[in-house]
Amino acid sequence: MKLFNRLKTDCAEDWKSYAEHEFVEKMGDGSLEKASFQHYLVQDYLFLIQFARAYALAIYKSRNLTEMRGCLEGLKAILDTEMQLHLKLCAEWGLNEDEIAKTPEAKSTIAYTRYVLEAGSAGDILDLFVALSPCMIGYAEIGERLSKLPKGQSEDNPYTVWISEYASNEYQEVAQGAGDLLDTLAETSFTEARYPRLLELFRQATRLEADFWTMGMELSD
Predict the structure, then answer these.
(1) How far is CA 51 from CA 133, 151, 204, in A?
(2) In whole angstroms, what separates CA 169 from the centre of its chain?
(3) I want to staple 213 with a disulfide (CB 3.0 to 4.6 A). Which of 21, 32, 166, 183 is the partner?
(4) Rounded Cα gap, residues 28 and 165, in angstroms
(5) How many domains in the chain?
(6) Reported pTM
(7) Quick check: is 219 in a domain?
(8) What is the CATH number for 79?
(9) Which of 67, 135, 141, 165 is catalytic?
(10) Rounded distance, CA 106 to CA 114, Å?
(11) pLDDT digits (tens, 9 = 90+) for 145-181
(12) Is residue 221 in some structural domain?
């Protein structure tokens, strides 16, 4: 079994709480309050700034050019695609980049991003990619699933742009690349003795993802 699938299977309950969170389901049927989505979107933009740093750290931690190029694709996806999508959606509410950048990070944003950065700083590139994978690969899974719901691509669903972005072939390829790189790293760095630690990194990152959705539902934390 591929490492990501094994981790996901062993964290099935936490994964379900994340991937099928109420926030996600309400995006899928279009019933999510716009204020909740806007709050989430601004915090996710701030989140992506830190995640870009995590991918830059992954490049530094890489052991060869193949790994460096794989990490670079993830970094480019964040800087050139995801962050631009966020700015486009925020502009619809009259928020510009300067205003977003001045918004304080929520506690959930700080908790999640610093956890991932610490995992990468204290460990090796496999530790870092295990902590990163619930976000990069999970969003692809969520986007693809929501796009197949009756209202997932409906014109009267205000969240179809977000759903379409993460369901797109381009993002699915990025997520597939992240999964492939995780498996490549595991081929040379994984041992059964390491698995409990990797599982804990994955479980905690998945729980922090769910907390991030919850923050959006609550508007503030």
Answers:
(1) 11, 30, 16
(2) 17
(3) 21
(4) 13
(5) 1
(6) 0.92
(7) no
(8) 1.20.910.10
(9) 135
(10) 12
(11) 999 999 999 999 999 999 999 999 999 998 998 899 8
(12) no
